[in-house]
Amino acid sequence: MEMNNPAPRNAIDDNRQGLIGKGINRVEGLLKVTGQAPYAYEVVEGEGGKAAYGFIVGATIAKGTVAGIDTAAAENAPGVLLVWTHRNAPRQGAWGPLDAKDRYGRASPQMGSNRVDYYGQAVAYVVAQTFEQARAAAYLVKVRYAPEPGEFELAPARGKAVKPPDEPNQKTDSLVGDFASAFEGAAVKVDSSYTTPCHIHAQMEPHATMAYWKDGRVVIHCASQLLESAQQAVAGTLQIAPDKVRIVSRYVGGGFGGKLPVYGDVMLSAMAARQLNRPVKTALTRQQMFHFTTHRSDTMQRVRLGATADGKFVAIGHETWAHSARFDNFMENASLQTRTLYAAPNRMTTHRLVKLDLPIADSTRAPGEAVGMLALEQAVDELAEKLKLDPIELRIRNEPAQDPELNVPYSSRQLVACMREGAQRFGWRNRRAEPAAVVEGRWWIGMGMAAATRSNFLMPSKCNVALDRQGVLTVRMAMTDIGTGSYTVLTQVAAETMGLPVDKVRMLLGDSDFPETPGSGGSWGAASAGSGLFDACTNLREKLARKLGVAPAEAVFADGRVSGAGKSETLGALAGTLGLEASGEIKPGSMAKKFSQQAYGAHFAEVAVHRDTGEIRLRRMLGVFAAGRILNEKTAKNQAVGAMVWGVGSALMEEAVVDPRYGFFANQDLAGYHVAAHADIPAVEAIFLPEVDDKTNPLKIKGVGELGICGAGAAVANAVYNACGVRIRQFPLTLDKVM
Ligand code: MOS
């Protein structure tokens, strides 16, 4: 089906079994907690005997060439099967192309030459009988470098920024009205600049691969969010047809955008398995992940807001500078949400790319909004203070009637409802507008809030369903579950649509041999894969109804039976010995253009700032969200709370620190790069307002995976200001910046 019209009332609306929305436990939860759900590196199956183990040697310079490399000691070390460098690595496809439609499907050659373009880049690869032997031998590889000076910092290189090309559906810059004059003449103004640092994904499961060849085809178990992209990337790198590549990612221990691409562990394992004719496993160490995989670019952002004395925006400007690797072109689109969030007759947004000699920057949870909102939502708070207006009231006064840039209605938008509900529940009326007004012992106490918004997407997705004689429905999709709950919410959709209990659905995901989906990314997974599944189930219902001799519209599916026109039969009996299959497909259609689609929310935070040390502690936090129909209140809440925790981390702790002398992240482990721990996170609550959006997709849902991080850190930053009266615009907000 194609999404060209509002979705009609359907089985999901009827929710006869009450499964949709219900917070059922994860269907694969037992397997995971009992260690029976193998992640890529744990997979033991494979053709060609026992697995060998690879270890990657990373460059210890950020830019230059390998001038000499001595592998003799490594080659003679115990258990070593293979040592590759740029001198003997297999020939591979060239990097890119840069303008590829699918940036995650680009070829990614390893050790294609003696060039070093970033710290940690693979300069050698060792395979041995055991992991320990491979790692020990890897340390015996002696590399002599000819280093070259590089540029590693955004600020000093900003003058060399370039304008990235427009994307098909998204211009790099926007200009509406006369921003410059309107800002100049505005009665009340804010002109603030913010910086956000590099962030890493810090997934629990590191990138890892188990590869083997079978019948001229490579089977790759790896940690991937997008199986088709991984398949393309491997095919392009190894110079083989995509159908000679099978990607399997049944369980993925966190993605956050860092597993949208696949990396050298995948390519090298696949090539080594071919050469050695046995399975090869390669995992990255936690330290390697900092450089050998992607990270979120740091940004510099300037936000200018001009308003009338009664708080109507007349001018909104948001400019972003962010880095990409010199050989890449990824842009952190931090100004994008500013085009749609608030109304103003004069608006200007820009994005500029600064090419640096750092590892590849790429998508990280809510690319764009996650750090764009840190700036925008603090600027709005600054403006509210100048206007002596409550920040919620200021936002309400600037609530647009329709999308100010696209000039189309919103599919649904409950930002105001989220702010009001949150204010009520959080006790916002107790907030003192003047900063540093509340003191408890040696602590200042403050409250802050911020809006949340994240774009909503629907992508093409296919599905196959097969019903057997026992009435068991087997679903096949090349979809992934990166810990978000895909297995569970898709099971709920299938079970509810077919009138089957949850335990009669077998959800098979994570295999590129299954029908194509857009995978997990951009918060579109549940909507896209779920809609393809819904279409397949709808087609299966039609077949079953016809078999029973009932008009499909009259057929009722409940309790494992289909009934109508005085007849009733079990699904299993109708499927018969041969079983019954159906396929389905969702295509985006024109609704995405007819309506501006976002999910919304409001964050509220209370912090304490120590008067002597400047230490900042979060005391409590609430997020109120409206994201269409919620498929599973428990998994949705998990997503929201997890994202809010990352928002707190972005505000207060997370920073991959670039050493400007050597061009690497100096704090390259989870001791030096602090991810919020339990002790950092007291009461965090997330709730969802009722919403059903028939413009988005047949399930009438919106993406929830990234919404919760958007604006979360800004609410914390605004609370810090309210607590102590120090406005910090350089993230993270550490105690030294308070003093
Ligand atoms: Mo998301 S950063 O698109 O996985």
UniProtKB/TrEMBL annotation:
<dbReference type="GO" id="GO:0016491">
    <property type="term" value="F:oxidoreductase activity"/>
</dbReference>
<dbReference type="InterPro" id="IPR046867">
    <property type="entry name" value="AldOxase/xan_DH_MoCoBD2"/>
</dbReference>
<protein>
    <submittedName>
        <fullName>Xanthine dehydrogenase</fullName>
    </submittedName>
</protein>
<dbReference type="Pfam" id="PF20256">
    <property type="entry name" value="MoCoBD_2"/>
</dbReference>
<dbReference type="InterPro" id="IPR016208">
    <property type="entry name" value="Ald_Oxase/xanthine_DH-like"/>
</dbReference>
<dbReference type="InterPro" id="IPR036856">
    <property type="entry name" value="Ald_Oxase/Xan_DH_a/b_sf"/>
</dbReference>
<feature type="domain" description="Aldehyde oxidase/xanthine dehydrogenase a/b hammerhead">
    <location>
        <begin position="34"/>
        <end position="149"/>
    </location>
</feature>
<dbReference type="Pfam" id="PF02738">
    <property type="entry name" value="MoCoBD_1"/>
</dbReference>
<dbReference type="InterPro" id="IPR000674">
    <property type="entry name" value="Ald_Oxase/Xan_DH_a/b"/>
</dbReference>
<dbReference type="GO" id="GO:0005506">
    <property type="term" value="F:iron ion binding"/>
</dbReference>
<dbReference type="Pfam" id="PF01315">
    <property type="entry name" value="Ald_Xan_dh_C"/>
</dbReference>
<dbReference type="InterPro" id="IPR008274">
    <property type="entry name" value="AldOxase/xan_DH_MoCoBD1"/>
</dbReference>
<dbReference type="InterPro" id="IPR037165">
    <property type="entry name" value="AldOxase/xan_DH_Mopterin-bd_sf"/>
</dbReference>
